[in-house]
Amino acid sequence: MSIVSKLCLTVFEIVNELYIGVGAGVVGLAVLINHGYKTNQLLRTLTVSAVSLGSLIYVFQSSAELKTPSLKQIILISGCDSGLGFSLAIHAARIGFTVVAGFLDLESPGAKEIKQFHRKITQIHLDVTSKESIFVAVETINQYLNSNPSYEFYALVNNAGVMVFGEFEWQTERLIHQQVHVNLMGTMNLSRAFIPLLRKYHGRMINITSHCSFTCLPGLAVYGATKAGVKALSDGLRIELGKYGVKVVMLTPGSFITQSNIMAKHPEHVHEMHRGFTKEQRGFYEDYFQRYHAYLLGITAPKIPKPIQDPTLYRKFEEALCLEAPKPAYKVEPFRYAFYHFLFKISPTPLRDFFIVKFMNMPEYHMTQIW
């Protein structure tokens, strides 16, 4: 990333903190107006206060010290077969945590490859859609803690996820259910099972969300809906569990699609969607459908999982894990993401939709038949 891009991202982060400052200032402004103060004088005061408060928040959070990880602190991470979960498990082990990594398939390339990076990572089978599998995971952690009384269950990282790229009408019922059951219900079920341990040890829950949870994108309507659900769940649990000493943090990773296998099954998804078309849908969508997915098939993923190369990702993951008072949410985003998502936030809906289409840059639909 260039120096200019880094500078721009820093500016965007400060602007985000200014939103907090402005919000606090508006509340104060309303109170003072109610007590008879003049609006013009107060607006000047509000502007200065918002900038000052936002800047102080940014400086304070940037300078906060990280707690030193310990082997006696256990972290469970779901969805470690590839991509983000694979990378976070390796990094957490390298900085000193005891990591229990959940794999959907213990014979997957990721499960085999992770042994090459760090042999101290404990691997377990974990299917977040299976109550039996989650029960075994809880029992495994409990046995570990009972055998090592000085250890603590420090964090649960809800990472397991499935993404199907395709317009909503194209997706089969199975593909829709899979995303809902893994991304949303899986996160709920795994969280609910581990909350007693998190309460006992005053641990923390880190939920992996997506930029789609803030701005849902065309072609990712189902995926975005599930991730928006995870965001809403996190917001609710942060307050519910906070009074018990449990911290709930959201981590939104950036664009690592070419470094993960989240699109690995896209060819299979394409065939399933196409087979599910009615005769009318084939006639209406055929050319657009083929061009749409030919474009996506150009996105290649590594056959053997490798750790994601992004220092900012690991820095923010460490902050979510190791800060005594972490922020409610962390975002990792390249400059292009930060720029467009800022536009999405401030634009009226018609202009916002225009920017989203430009951001996606997908093949266009051309009407081929008059009805």
The total of beta strands comes to: 7
- Report how far apart the termini are: 49 Å
Low-confidence stretches: 4-10, 54-62
Helix content: 55-70%
Molecular shape: globular
Beta-strand percentage range: 5-15%
What structural category arises from helix and sheet content?
alpha/beta
Chain-averaged pLDDT: 86
**Largest beta sheet: what is the strand line-up?**
3-2-1-4-5-6-7
Radius of gyration: 23 Å
Please, how many helices?
12
Spell out the helices and strands N to C: HHEHEHEHEHEHEHHHEHH
Main sheet, how many strands, which sense, barrel? 7 strands, parallel
Fold and architecture overview:
By secondary structure, the protein is an alpha/beta fold. It has twelve helices and seven strands. It has a seven-stranded parallel β-sheet, with helices on both faces. Strand 4 (152-158), helix 6 (173-201) and strand 5 form a beta-alpha-beta unit. Helix 8 (266-275) runs antiparallel to helix 9 (279-296). It is globular and about 70 Å long. The relative contact order is 0.11. Residues 4-10 and 54-62 have low confidence and may be disordered.
Quick take:
The protein contains twelve helices and seven strands. By secondary structure, it is of the alpha/beta class. A seven-stranded parallel sheet has the order 3-2-1-4-5-6-7, with helices on both faces.
Keyphrases for this structure?
seven-stranded parallel β-sheet, 10% strand, 12 helices, 371 residues, alpha/beta, 57% helix, 7 strands
